[in-house]
């Protein structure tokens, strides 16, 4: 008989939340390093931008250029908080839109995955 380990929820994470709070510099470093190391990715053209009128929100927007003429549009929304005068972030909403470059479909290309 296999022993099943019961998964316990960290107290600082609400039920159903996949990711917890990270220091912003660490979050951005992970984001950049993962994309730079991925063999499918040619260029990361995303940037982190503040949300107008919301000091508690940040967005990661832009696109990732991939092999095979594929481009992935990225829109991540992050909650922001300050702890000990340092910024922490937690992603709470994601949107990815993959397109294939195809002159028949104009500049935006053809949907691959949405």
Keywords:
1 helix; six-stranded antiparallel beta sheet; 12% helix; elongated; mainly beta; 6 strands; Nuclear Transport Factor 2, Chain: A; 114 residues
Structural write-up:
Strands 1, 2, 3, 4, 5 and 6 form a six-stranded antiparallel β-sheet that branches. 12% of the residues lie in helices and 52% in strands. A hairpin with a 3-residue loop joins strand 3 and strand 4 (70-83). The chain has one helix and six strands, in the order E-H-E-E-E-E-E. The longest helix has 14 residues, at 24-37. It is mainly β and 114 residues long. It has a domain at 43-113: Nuclear Transport Factor 2, Chain: A.
- What is the CATH C-level name of the domain at 43-113? Alpha Beta
Gross CATH architecture of the domain at 43-113: Roll
Largest sheet: 6 strands, antiparallel
User: How much of the residues is beta strand, in percent?
Assistant: over 45%
Low-confidence sequence ranges: none
Mean pLDDT: 85
Please state the CA-atom Rg, rounded to the nearest Å.
18 Å
Report the end-to-end length measured between terminal Cα atoms.
42 Å
The total beta strand count reads 6
Form type? elongated
Order of helices and strands: EHEEEEE
Number of helices: 1
SSE-based structural type: mainly beta
Q: At the third CATH level, what is the topology name of the domain at 43-113?
A: Nuclear Transport Factor 2, Chain: A
Q: Tell me roughly what share of residues is in helical segments.
A: 10-25%
């Amino acid at each position: 008989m296999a022993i099943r380990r019961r998964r316990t929820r960290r107290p600082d994470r609400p039920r159903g939340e996949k990711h917890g709070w990270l220091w912003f510099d660490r979050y951005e470093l992970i984001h950049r390093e993962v994309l730079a190391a991925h063999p499918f990715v040619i260029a990361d053209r995303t940037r982190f931008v503040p949300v107008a009128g919301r000091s508690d929100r940040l967005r990661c927007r832009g696109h990732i250029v991939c092999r095979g003429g594929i481009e992935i549009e990225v829109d991540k929304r992050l909650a922001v908080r300050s702890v000990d005068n340092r910024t922490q972030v937690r992603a709470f909403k994601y949107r990815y839109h993959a397109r294939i470059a195809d002159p028949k479909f104009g500049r935006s290309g053809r949907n691959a995955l949405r």
